[in-house]
Structures are given as structure tokens and as C-alpha cells.
Write the C-alpha cells for this entry.
Amino acid sequence: MWHKPQIKAKKLSFADTKKFLKSGVYCEEEFKVTHDDFGEIWINDVKTQAVIGGPKKDQTAIYETAEMYGARYMSSIIEAPHEHFARKTVARTEDDMKRLERELYNVYKLVKYTEENDLWVQDEHQCDATFKCPYMKSCFSNVELDPDNPPEGMKCIYKKEKK
């Protein structure tokens, strides 16, 4: 068993940001840190949010990227695995197993129906649930996506066969 992480992505302190930007190392993992002509900070080719100001006007603090958060969470797991995982017996009745089987079969039928009828539902609650989805612009532009000509940075992994 495992439980949902109790830590969330965070903003680094001004001191930790300065140290990270100089070394490129965060939670014992190396990151590629670059700056563009507009003063934006890129970590492993992902633009990060930054706060400029603080006690000294030229200080910068950055928010963790998904990879940085992952590195910190992995460090937490390595340091204290007992806080993240536990082995317990979960008793299941025959009725529980039958109910699960029916539910899985219904999910399967729903996925098949969705594919066969070219039905795709946008879930706007997940676009920035933890980190911003890189495809938000494509979804919210209301432009019909063409599988034969996907937007830059995207590729089509599903093409419905024409009947």
C-alpha cells in the first residue's frame, strides 16, 4: 500500500534558488539551467515560474518544476520509505471480486465505445491540477486538431481508421 504524497511542489527560498542556479544540483540530481534573452529561467528546457524581489531587489526565487518536485519526493522516499509504503493484508470477499470484475468490464466497454465513436472529453480540471499541461493552448484554442498535421511539439498516437 502507499499513500498520497503529503508534500507538494514549492517555491524555493532566495538562498536555495541562488545555490541551485549556480550549481544546477537539486536533491542530489543535476538539472540543465539556462536563461533566455528575456530573463526567463529554463530548467531542463521547461520555463519555470520565478519571483523577483525580496529583501534585496535583485533576488530571485523559483518554483519547483515537475522534475525538481519528483527529485525531492524521491529523496524523501529513499530517506524514509516506511513513511511512504506499508505492507498490509486486505481481505476481499467473493462479492468484492465479482463487483470489481463487473466494474473493470464496464470501464473496458466505455473505453471501446469512446474509441469507436471518436468521443474525447476534455477535463479542464486537470489542466493545471499540479503542473500546467503543455497541451493547454491546443485544447483551449478550440481549433480542430488534424491527426495528419499535429501542432509543433505534438504527435498523433491515435488515428481512427476511416470506414
In short: The CA atoms of residues 14 and 89 lie 46 Å apart. The longest strand covers residues 50-53.
